[in-house]
Amino acid sequence: MLVATGGALGAIIRYILTSICKSLFLSSIYGTVSVNILGSFLIGYFITSNFGNNLSENFIKFFLIIGLLGSFTTFSAFSYEVVELINSKKYISSFTYIFISIFICILSAYLGTLLNKF
């Protein structure tokens, strides 16, 4: 139940944020990379946080991390957008998008874990 509820909420939040980014930048790429970076940071933060003292470990793991943030971030949309860029012969854009998405998301998760060390 926790995963399903968190997943539904994460999908709704992702849809809202990507829609806002798409209306601002006329491309869904910016929305997808934004939610993936933010989601990666938050996953890193929650995994290493002390929220377990106030919330149950199951709530954090199943609702926040697997459900909400797992649904909020989206590798499938990223994959589709990369294929679209390649099919449009936008090779530099596609490789830039791949690099930013992978490197910055991993860096964001790491920074999220560092935040809890201070």
Topology:
Blueprint: H1 2-25, H2 28-48, H3 57-72, H4 75-87, H5 91-115
Which descriptors would you attach to this protein?
118 residues; mainly alpha; 5 helices; 0% strand
In short:
This protein is mainly alpha-helical and 118 residues long. 84% of the residues lie in helices and 0% in strands.
Question: In words, what does this structure look like?
Answer:
With 118 residues, this protein is mostly helical. It has one domain. Helix content is 84%, strand content 0%. The chain has 5 helices and no strands. It has helices at residues 2-25, 28-48, 57-72, 75-87, 91-115. The longest helix is centred in the C-terminal third of the chain and has 25 residues, at 91-115. It is globular, with a radius of gyration of 15 Å.
Number of helices: 5
Distance between the termini: 33 Å
Q: Profile the largest sheet.
A: none
Note the run of SSEs as H and E: HHHHH
Which class of secondary structure composition applies to the elements? mainly alpha
In angstroms, what is the radius of gyration?
15 Å
Give the mean pLDDT.
88
Gross morphology is globular
What oligomeric state do the depicted chains represent?
single chain
Low-confidence stretches: none
Approximately how much beta-strand content do the residues carry?
under 5%
Q: Work out the number of β strands.
A: 0
Instruction: Give the total of domains.
Output: 1
Percentage of residues in helical conformation: over 70%
